[in-house]
Amino acid sequence: MTVTDHTPILAAPASRGGCPFAPPPAYEQAREEAPVTRVTLWDGSQCWLITRHEDVRAVLGDARFSAEATRPGYPFLSPGRKTVAAGESSFIRMDDPDHARLRRMLTADFMVKKIEAMRPEIQRLTDDLLDRMTASRSAADLVTEFALPLPSLVICRLLGVPYEDHDYFQERSRVLLHNGSTEAEVLAARDELVGYLTELAKAKEHAPDDGIMSRLMARGELGMPQAAAMGLLLLIAGHETTANMTALSVLALLRERDQWTRLQEDPSLVKGAVEELLRYLTIVHNGVTRAATEDVTIGGRTIRAGEGVICTLNTANRDADVFPSGADLDVARDARRHVAFGFGVHQCLGQPLARVELQTALETIIRRLPDLRLDVPFEDIRFREDMVVYGVYALPVAW
Ligand code: HEM
Hints:
alpha+beta; CATH 1.10.630.10; five-stranded mixed β-sheet; 16 helices; 48% helix; 9% strand; binds protoporphyrin IX containing FE
């Protein structure tokens, strides 16, 4: 079937076809045949799917598209996601100037120079986790033993959150990021996490440390609810994303062994390889959503005020106009124009940290475990199709 303009055949989010690393085939078909097209959502409402690199950047760079979930026409990808977005009180769901005012309070913490200074500490944590994982075994689940603890430890330190509480916040984050969570489950998980961070923020008022939560409280500009909302955004974004990116990257490199070997032979390729893996895997796989506040023309189509858009970052990252042979993983490719971290004013705040964590994790794993292999058939790996952040549920490996 041909996708033509205004053909409401694509339910969003669509499911994947054969290759678990590729975008849903229906979205790729849309990019080729009707790059700005109407899609139907779970509740029968319609919105626009924006699939090309150029158009995605045009939308995300245009202030006439709002990130506020309360705007008319704002698209929600599931009932649970509607509850999450409608109750989101941090700056990711705000427009400027409020968004810029709040984001600015954190920019110094995530500046490249500040994060680069953390590299030795991130290397030490990486080595400690790998020492423990390999101490008396020759097989393990890379997700629970390495990919999840590393970014969780780092974000806990940055925020001043006790890592001992990781089961508590990881379990509830999982509920918030699951597309199938019910409204009641989402509300309960969020209330518990906000309660947890509010108590923590209160404690920091009396006994401050050098973490971000303490500093936000000390500034005195933020009320308790906003400080907790910001802490929650950083805590969730800070561990779920990098954890999944790490495990999925290792899996992709094991699958494309020649790429693993290239990195083994020339570790100077790792920095570029991280950009290529971000592009190739695009773990924010349901895309990012906005609502038009004025009529805007994108890719020759007029999107009316009050209509929603979904920018599919994964199809943009395989757009042949920017990335020839985009379906191939090529660690030597210059992939810097990818939009895996989004684009425009909401572009990922944590990207310098994600980069250093990923570069350190991949370089160290390849160097220390050169013969790493999958410990189950590839077909048995369970992919996180039903989560906001794509990845694998477990990655059994042996060495
Ligand atoms: C925003 C992806 C890691 C914190 C975003 C957005 C994307 C993204 C696509 C834009 C959302 C939108 O436009 O609506 C990723 C990926 C990561 C990653 C792929 C890892 C591989 C991190 C980390 C942190 C973080 C480690 C924090 C420590 C944030 C924050 C925002 C954001 C605070 C909101 C920015 C704003 O609204 O101004 N991220 N992220 N992210 N990310 Fe990340």
